[in-house]
């Protein structure tokens, strides 16, 4: 049992990797307003934390995240202002993940549904236990997963996204890997090894380079081809002036490990 003093989101940092763990297993780690505000606060702090190079988003318990807290929503059926504030807060958190100047890896064990599936899709990378399952089941309860649709449709093809949204059916981790919702579906016994192995590999890179690359990736996605090439050419030319680019190139040519300055 958790005490009342335990945080909604636990935070642990080690060797440049910060793990944020959703910590309400008794409510299936649902995204209540309080949970969303706690997660938003942690992401805001990490954004300016020079010691964090990679973020792992995990969950305590057998469910990764069941989406919005339907009991909370039922209590506020007649308060449309609250409903709008809730969905705006959720959208803010998803955009914070995308705009965070550090890569974010979802570590998924268990079920991720509705806004929980949206949370996985919003992360830059995702690794799931092969026992994990995913769904956008809002259609089953008369509340179409419209905001989860935004992240889902930017990660998988239109027809795969529409199949999940229109049927509301669960898909396996293996199927999620096939359609691109997660990077890897692995045996649960090697989930942490896979997630933190990936995180350590990324954390070993220049923090400045990761920031530049992540920002450029999401910006160019929405551009026409010629505009994307014009934009990324400028990004690369600017990146070339960074200390870490010069150090990295010299280290490669001199066959030594680079000494990153994160600038």
From TrEMBL:
Keyword tags: Fatty acid metabolism, Lipid metabolism, Lyase, Transit peptide
UniProt name for this protein: Enoyl-CoA hydratase domain-containing protein 3, mitochondrial
InterPro entries xrefs: ClpP/crotonase-like_dom_sf (IPR029045), Enoyl-CoA_hydra/iso (IPR001753), Enoyl-CoA_hydra_C (IPR014748), Mitochondrial_ECH-domain (IPR052377)
Top-level taxon in the UniProt lineage: Bacteria
Transmembrane segments: none
Keyword flag Transit peptide: yes
Function statement: May play a role in fatty acid biosynthesis and insulin sensitivity.
Key word Lipid metabolism present: yes
Coiled coil region boundaries: none
A GO molecular function held by the record: enoyl-CoA hydratase activity
